[in-house]
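Q: Predict the bound structure with aspartic acid.
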Amino acid sequence: MGVVLVALGGTISVSGGVRGERLTGAEITAAVPGLEELAPVDVLDAHAVPSGSLTFGQILDTVAVASRAVAEGADGVVVTQGTDTLEETAFLVDLVWPHEEPIVLTGAMRQPAMAGADGPANVLAAVRVATAREARGAGALVVLNDEVHAARWVRKTHSTSPATFASPNAGLLGHVVEGRVRMLLTPPPREPLPAGLDRARLEATRVALHVVTLDDDGARLDGLETTYAGLVVAGFGVGHVPGVLAPRLGALAERIPVVLTSRTGAGSVLRHTYHAPGSESDLLQRGLIDAGFLDPYKARVLLRVLLAAGNGPRAVADAFALRG
Ligand code: ASP
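A: Predicted complex:
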């Protein structure tokens, strides 16, 4: 049946004109050598904005469009968008994608008019993965630079390099080589959450991210619970904060879910190795929730989805235990 490609904007769609016009999905796919012979591609244009301006609601709209396409017989779906927030949007899609058919997110680091533009190669590889038997059941995948990453692990690690995407905790899942999809690792197990979130409730469910820094007393966290339904803390190393900040976080955790992650970029937070004030075991005793291997950005996505769906503190903790 072929692939449905949803175009959402980003560098892959920058036309090079001074007025900020964007290429349509049809113009993006027309520039991909060999695509026509590979698979029929139906193109849909939606939300042509820089990825930093995308919303959870727009991504869930895209999931709904993709779900309909799969229900109508598509072998898989490709989404093109900006790379800046791809690690967050891909994880959001993965959390709610209920199908066996793959949904593959891709983009480009170089604009179409630049020497060595990577968009066409990335679209071609993404379509190959979207139609590959090997990718079925893998949920949301990120494909750039002929590499296949699980949405669960992928990070943008460089501001300009075409090899920016990496999965520091797990390694990449596979490669596209000579047009073949070669999966090297098994994708992480998935338990999709309901995609049908009430939009008004989602919009009202704000989740803050606080990155802890040297000599940080967290004064800006005061009163946070009046505006935010949850907080993710990106702590030092294995999940530590300055001792003076610990009581503030503990008090917040009595009001709203507070999730503990590491700001390091890889590795998990610990549970019971250090015991000083502000250490991981002190914070967990004060009611913070351990995010395991989830990085701060992905933890924030999960927490917002859980809270928007009406989950209470126990269900939130259980979900992080399952997915962290
Ligand atoms: N600023 C762009 C965006 O995320 C960067 C990109 O597409 O690579 O929309």
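A: The mean pLDDT is 97.
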